[in-house]
Write a structure and sequence with these properties.
Order of helices and strands: HHHHHHHHHHH
Strand content: under 5%
Distance between the termini: 21 Å
Structural class: mainly alpha
Largest sheet: none
Number of helices: 11
């Protein structure tokens, strides 16, 4: 029970980042930079409490991983502005799960048992169906029914960049290097800031909208810590599956907090798409437990 309660924290924290940051405002570059500043503050506090060993390789790998993460997050923020939080976030989570799983299977032979291939294939099918319905638009929707202009072509381009960044970050940490998460969090946060600064061509500033976005960086840090606690208490399968439920939080926040309007058809499609994402994520979590 304790592990499940821990797992609810990353679900709420990570699922809220998109709509809270968009409510605060700013460009994707400002949002990314602000988030990374908050992540550095959080990681510094964790380091002072835990005092993990930091080697040269930990710093090197952590910074590389943080820069890859910044590419993923910047692309995700861009996709949110083009497509809306309630559409971009579920698509982002789903695309990471699909591409990440395929790389794990094809490049690193993560599935070795028949039951893993059966459940994994079913999971990927659910995720692809979720893709379709989460992005499906009502052709009868009038311009006045939308709260802001949408550009799905640019949104999918940003989502592609985001997925490449996030998947590279995940594969790098999970399959290429083996770092203690508590040791890597501080070097990674510095890599995140460096990556965010690169998007701003190192012309960084600390204007109010950037500093306000640091709040979501602290939320991100809390999600990371509780993800580790959940994995330790209830296992990675439970922690992984629950963290994917953040897509529900994103949809609710996008519609209720940001006022993203949807027709009745679109509401049904989005709910169906997210349901497929959740089923697919849970099945992938079960696959990981074998």
């Amino acid at each position: 029970m304790t592990g499940i309660l821990y797992a609810l924290v990353p679900m709420l924290a990570w699922g809220s980042i998109g709509f809270i940051s968009n409510k605060i405002g700013g460009t994707p570059n400002q949002q990314t930079f602000g988030l990374t500043l908050g992540a550095v503050v959080f990681a510094s506090v964790v380091y002072m409490i835990v005092r993990p060993e930091l080697t040269v390789m930990t710093w090197l790998y952590g910074i590389i991983g943080g820069m890859l993460w910044a590419v993923g997050q910047n692309g995700q923020f861009s996709a949110m502005q083009y497509m809306g939080v309630s559409v971009a976030n579920p698509l982002s989570s789903g695309s990471q799960l699909v591409i990440g799983s395929l790389i794990g299977v094809l490049a690193f032979q993560e599935w070795t048992k028949p039951i893993q291939f059966i459940l994994g294939t079913i999971a990927l099918i659910f995720l692809l169906v979720g893709f379709y319905f989460s992005s499906k638009q009502d052709k009868d929707k009038s311009a006045s029914q939308d709260s802001q202009p949408r550009d799905f072509k640019k949104g999918f381009q940003a989502l592609t960049t985001s997925t490449l960044g996030y998947v590279s970050y995940t594969v790098f940490f999970n399959n290429i290097v083996n770092l203690d998460p508590m040791s890597a969090i501080l070097p990674m946060s510095f890599g995140m800031v460096l990556g965010a600064a690169m998007f701003m061509k190192f012309q960084v500033n600390f204007e109010p909208v950037v500093l306000k976005n640091s709040i979501v960086g602290i939320m991100w840090g809390f999600g990371n810590i509780f993800m580790l606690l959940a994995a330790a208490e209830a296992g990675l399968a439970i922690a992984f599956s629950f963290s994917q439920l953040g897509a529900i939080i994103s949809i609710i926040g996008g519609i209720v907090i940001l006022g993203e309007k949807k027709t009745k058809k679109e509401m049904v499609w989005v709910l169906l798409g997210v349901s497929c994402f959740i089923i697919g994520a849970v099945l992938l979590g079960i696959v990981k437990s074998y």
